[in-house]
Amino acid sequence: MDFQTAVRKCFKDFATFQGRAPRSEFWWFMLFIFLGQIVFAVLDGLLFGRAHFDAGMGFFYYATSGGPLGTIFSLIVLLPAISVGVRRLHDTNHSGWWLFISLIPLIGSLILLYFFISRAPDAEPEANRFGPPVV
């Protein structure tokens, strides 16, 4: 699955919490969110003066305090991100309720990252309890 197909599918199935999502669909959509956050942070900084360059220990960085465009983008991608996360967990033969483990600081996010990265169950071409594999 390529970048455009993954993003279109995630927005088309924005409230579908059943079925499975392959690794490529999940990670392409996460890249889309990451790039979108960068673009809207820069736009918020340019249009609303909510950002500035600052100096750290031997480096410069772009600091932003949030803005309306980034907030709107985050709200738009929130439900599709949750649904593709649930479907990715289904692909690894885990319940979507495992998303709540990310509420445990550090350890929860690492466990969830392991589930999102894992390959073993989705490498098998047979169906699991959440449905047939998505090609």
Helix and strand arrangement:
Blueprint: H1 3-12, H2 23-48, E1 51-55, E2 60-64, H3 68-91, H4 107-117, H5 120-123
Antiparallel strand pairs: 1-2
Helix pairs in contact: 1-2, 2-3
InterPro entries: DUF805
Keywords: Membrane, Transmembrane, Transmembrane helix
Pfam family, one: DUF805
Computed over alpha carbons, the radius of gyration is: 17 Å
Instruction: Please state roughly what percent of the residues sit in beta strands, choosing from under 5%, 5-15%, 15-25%, 25-35%, 35-45% or over 45%.
Output: 5-15%
Total helices: the number is 5
Tell me, rounded to a whole number, the average pLDDT: 87
The count of DSSP E runs of length 2 or more, i.e. the number of strands, is 2
Describe the strand arrangement of the main beta sheet, using strand numbers.
Answer: 1-2
Main sheet makeup: 2 strands, antiparallel
Order of helices and strands: HHEEHHH
Provide a quick synopsis of the model:
Keywords: Membrane, Transmembrane, Transmembrane helix. Helix content is 56%, strand content 7%. It has 135 residues and is mainly α.
